[in-house]
Structure formats: structure tokens, C-alpha cells
């Protein structure tokens, strides 16, 4: 499992990019993150809800009560136009970041050879 | 599952109850329960599943910081008592039990007296009737008194509900709906109660009119039992209805808690002035004036005027607030 320190700055972006596909709620999102990363990254409940709070404060997402399933009324989240724009910026930023980090840290290739 | 719920409740204990934090707690609890269920279904042991779910909860402080709920404000606010769904249901259930038991206590005492009266009047046929009657009287009084004393003591457990507490808008809505739904039962109970009390006069009157059908003591005995049944209806439905009123009056919204409590205190002060000063003064004026002028035939009108003025004063004070 990846240390959460390294990834902290990207939690908001993870959630935004998942919400960019469809509206969703807490557990479904954390499960998607776990499955997409083959269990290498698991987002903690409080980390996820901190991110929701932050995203809501910035108007990147909005929440609405979903239908009651199994006696539970879940809060659903939806990405806003502002959120989509922000996501695009973050995607571009990541492309650059990835290149920079790759060039400096080098990674697996150098060590193996 | 209950462990997850308890864990989340424990973590949220110091978090001030608002609509937002309550929904947050429910969402996190639902997520954890979903995760737990899936782990269990995939064959993970109960123990291990709980371990994973709780390990993946995280740190509540991280979340509270983000939400702008600082430690100090959470300490201040946690002094505001809050009543959640379970606490609300407990109060309503307690009050309905209390109603039944107090009603039963009164009925028991009245029945004791009634049995004695009935048995005394047949003592010329059954020799031991007097003794049985006295035994029934005593046991009726003992059982009844015990019920009343025990219930009286039990009400001290419910004191917290008679002081202001935080009530979430969702709960308030539910309570208002339930109270309105209960109004029908209340009306029915009052009608039944009144009917029993009126009917209770029948055996007594029959006894008075024709002692051949029913002797007067037997009539009185039957009257007491019927009236006792009527009382059970009143006490029970009254207690349940009162429970909703108490909850809705003392339950304050989390946002305006302080202001609402202050407004309550002001209102109580006005009521106090009206009850303790206003009306006694009116009574003194009535007596003094009536004696001096001797106009007993019309001086009572001061009470009618006083009643109208009371509403005006309360209205003015309310508007001034």
C-alpha cells in the first residue's frame, strides 16, 4: 500500500475524475479507487470526506440525497462545470509532474540495470 | 454491525450535532457497513473484517479541521445536550408505559374500594365476604400505591427531556407528523374516557332509583370501576400526547440553540409575572371594589376584562421581542 503522505495532494483529483464519469456516493467511490489500483491505494473514510468538504467549499462538486437503499439514505455527489475545468487543469499539471518526477527520480529502470 | 455503529458513535461523541455532522456520521457508518458486508461475503472472518473497516476509518481530527470544527468549539458545543432518534423513541415509550402504569395504579385503588363495597353488600349471603373485601381493598391499595410511587420515582430519569436540548430538523419533522397522527387516537381516547365516566353514573343512579335491582353500595362500586377505566384512557393518551409536546417544546434547532433557549426564559418570565402578580392584583381589586361598592352583581366583569387584557399584554410583549 502506498503511503498516504505522497498521494495526499491528489485525493481531490481522484474523486473528481471518478465523479466526472458518473454521480456516485462514498462507498462506491472508495471501492472504485481500491479496484482501479489493485488494492495498492485505499482511501481512508476521513480522508475521503475531508476531500468532499474541500471540493464542496470550492464549488467543484455538489451533494444531493440519494434514494433510500437497504434502509440507508446515501449522500450522492455530482461534479460541477467549475469542477470539470479544475479537473482539466489538474490533469495537465499531472502530465508535467509525472515527467518531472520521472526525470529526477528515474525510478525502476536505472536501479534494475 | 452494531460494533461499527458504536465505533462511529463513539468517535462522533465530541462532535457537535448539526444536520451536516449527523448526515456525515450516517454516511460514514453506511460506507463502513457496506465494506464490512462485502468483506464478510468474500469469506473474511468477522474479526478480520472489523479490523480492516476500522483501520480504514482514518483520523477524525483531519476531517473536523477541514470542516472548520475546532476542538474548542466542539468542547463548547458538546455541552448542549442532544437527543437523537433512539433517545426520542425511549422518551415516548417511557411516557406511554408511565401512562399505562399510572392509569392501572389508579384503577387498582378504585377497584379495591369497589370490591369492598360490593362484597360488604353481599356479606349476609356469603359469611367470609367482609374479610375477602378487606383483603381485596388492601391489596388494591398496595398494588396501586406501589405503581404510583415506582412510576413517580422513574420520572426523575426523564428529567433531561424537560430541559432544552438539540433536536435535528429531521427528527422534529418526524415528531410533528407522529403527533398529528396521534391526535386521532387522543380524541378517541378522550371520547371513550368521557363515555366511561358518564356511564359510571348509571349503576349509581339505578341503585338510587330502585334498590331492588342494585343496592346503592354495589352501584357505587361499579361506578368506581367504570370511572377507573375511564381514567386509564385519559392518563395513557394524555401522557403520550404530552411526550410529543415536551420533545417539540424543549427540542431546539442546532443553529439557533442559544437564542431559542433565551427566548424561552423570557417567555417564562412573562408567564410568571402574569400568574404571580397580574391575576392576584385583579382578585384584590375585585374583592375590594365589590365590598366598597357592593356591586357583586356586575363586578365579576373585571375577570372578563382581565382575560382580554392578558392576551393583549402577552401579544405586546411577544411583538416587542
Description:
The complex is a heterodimer of chains A (113) and B (321). By secondary structure, chain A is of the alpha+beta class. Chain A has 6 helices and 3 strands. Chain A has one domain: Arc Repressor Mutant, subunit A (Orthogonal Bundle), CATH 1.10.10. Chain A is 59% helix and 17% strand. In chain A, a hairpin with a 2-residue loop joins β2 and β3. With 321 residues, chain B is mainly α. Chain B folds into 3 domains: 76 residues, no CATH class; 171 residues, no CATH class; 62 residues. Helices cover 80% and strands 1% of the residues of chain B. The two termini of chain B are 49 Å apart. At the A-B interface, α3, α4 and β3 of A face α2 and α4 of B.
- Pattern of helices and strands of chain B: HHHHHHHEHHHEHHH
Q: Give the fraction of residues assigned to helices of chain B.
A: over 70%
Count of DSSP strands of chain A: 3
Largest pleated sheet of chain B? 2 strands, parallel
Tally of individual helices of chain B: 13
CATH architecture field of chain A:
Orthogonal Bundle
Question: Main β-sheet of chain A: number of strands, strand sense, barrel status?
Answer: 3 strands, antiparallel
Rg value of chain A = 16 Å
**Biggest protein-protein contact in the assembly:** A-B, 18 and 22 residues
Strand order of the largest sheet of chain A: 1-3-2
Multimeric status of the protein: heterodimer
Q: Beta-sheet strand percentage of chain A?
A: 15-25%
Note the total helix count of chain A.
6
Order of helices and strands of chain A: HHEHHEEHH
Helical amount of chain A: 55-70%
Query: What count of structural domains of chain B?
Result: 3
Q: Can you tell me the CATH class of chain A?
A: Mainly Alpha
Runs of chain A with pLDDT <50, length 5+?
none
